[in-house]
Amino acid sequence: MTIETVYLAGGCYWGLEDLLRKIPGVVETAVGFSGGHVKNVCYREVTTGTTGHAETVKVMFDSEVLSFTDLLRFFFKIHNPTTLNQQGNDIGTQYRSAIFSTTSEQVFLAEDLIKKIDASGVLGHKITTEVNTFNSFFPAEENHQKYIEKYPDGYSCHFIRDINI
Hints:
The chain is an alpha+beta fold and 165 residues long. 26% of the residues lie in helices and 25% in strands. The chain contains 5 helices and 8 strands, in the order E-H-E-H-E-H-E-E-E-H-E-E-H. The strands form 2 sheets. The protein has a 6-stranded mixed sheet, with helices on one face. Strand 4 (86-87) and strand 5 form a beta hairpin. The longest helix has 17 residues, at 104-120.
């Protein structure tokens, strides 16, 4: 096994995590916050939109089973990467689309895939997803981890879109 980690933000992390953790090759997920300026942040603080953090899913995956590019293709199918700071009814910078890469290769692959998808026109609009180098991740409270599994009727604006990326 070759385990890689990436941090993906694409709106409310509950539904995002639920879909990502079910992909063959994903070995572990956790929800939390990345991209902001407040340390040891909690959910209540992030909801104010003033921390700079995005709701983020830590994704650990076996790159021998699931390539980074295929993981991102799935990520782009389960949220709308063309809306700036919004997913469904969730609006604000904390719901932005972002990739927090842990290696320079991930940055290159993410930027390359975004260029290819944009050039194809398949999404109808340009991707607004930020590609950043990972800096920090603050896990959300335990009641937010695997939320949809715990509360199957819980809120989610995520689903698998029928698009060929």
